[in-house]
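Hey, I'm writing a tutorial for new members on how sequence and structure tokens pair up, and I'd like a real worked example in the thread rather than a made-up one. If someone can provide the structure for the chain below, I'll link this post from the tutorial.
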Amino acid sequence: MQARENRSWGTRVRALMALVFAAATGAAAAAPRETLTVLTSYPEEVVATFERAFERRHPDIGLQILWRQHRDAYDYLQGPAQGGVDVYWSPAVRNFADLGEEGSLRKLDVDLTGLPSHVGKFRISDPDGRFVASEIAGFGFMLDPAALARQGLPAPKTWQDLANPRYRGHILFPVPSRVGFSPTLLDVMLQAEGWDKGWALLSEAGPNFVLAQTGGAFASLSQGMRAPISVAVTIDFFASSAIANGAPLTFVYPPGTGYSPAHIGMLRDTPHLDAARTFVTFVLSDEGQRLLFAPDVRKLPVRPSVYRDAPKGTYDPFASHAATADVTYEETLGLSRYALDNALFDIFVTRRQAALTELWTRWQSLHDSGKDNRTAVDPRCLVKARALLAQPPVDAATASDAALHKTFDRRRADNAAAAQAEALETRWSRDLDARSARVRQWLSDGAVCAD
């Protein structure tokens, strides 16, 4: 009798303990995970790839993703408590430079072993350690070989090739003031060619461009180009992802190209410092970097060691033969004149494309007829016209003025700077219109130019 009671009591105790354990386990499972807020401009397919892998590796940390484009992201981080953001992760070079300069980012105290600070001579990470590159993308030409063959066009290989009049209307080119990746693209071209030759190239190539106002214009080419476009001057991941998914495209990195690094950094006011470190470390780890090879992502990792696992045909920017091996692009210079470059492109190319097309078409026609002495224009006029057409909107000395950079940088938030920038643009536009009128005179029938 006593034994049966003891067994019954023991059974009840064990059952009670099992219930207590189950309740405790359930409570632990139901307990909220630490939530880390990440601000990014990456598209859903990129973020989802990293989110799934990170939460498998770190189930105790949940990610809350906030999407903001570059301009909106910077403004958002100026709000109270920096908008509650813990980690900023985005291909927004200018934002990171500004946030680092104003003290909005913590110094990164994570292990960066194996992560170069440069690609060739091109710096990709903050020298003061406030943000680090998480991936890079290179600039060049996305090509549709079949379309080029149908049009009887050669594949461009250099920046200068873009000025070939045979490409008239066949080149998609991003407007730097409108498309996020393209201000760096513009300055890469200007530094590769030099200020004077760079703007001369843009003047002569401008008539060939179909100007794109959004990045979506490039993403939409994933299944091939839309006639008559057969070349897109762009960033490589648009082509890489499309090619990985079967699109009949190729990509060429011209000599003198450069890269647009995406960065990751921790916000100064983050209350989740350990979780932020964990996420940054994961993104930069071998595992995180290999995720960049996914077909819907296709970015270039910043950890050279993972390229041994890259899909066949992946471009390796750290290889000795890479197109940027000898490039000396100065990111500091590019950032300093970022807003000025954008404004100059708009007044020199975007708003004057019709005039550039008219004048370069006329010049080319007269130049070609002059080869067999059929031109009705003094050859000296052609020389003068070309020089004036190719002249930069402002000279290199003006473009290097720090006060001018500051005026255009501040125009969005400072009414006085906005008024000053607008006045300068008006003056420059008038000067360009006067140049165009002079070129028309020199290219008119019977024009004669004295030495």
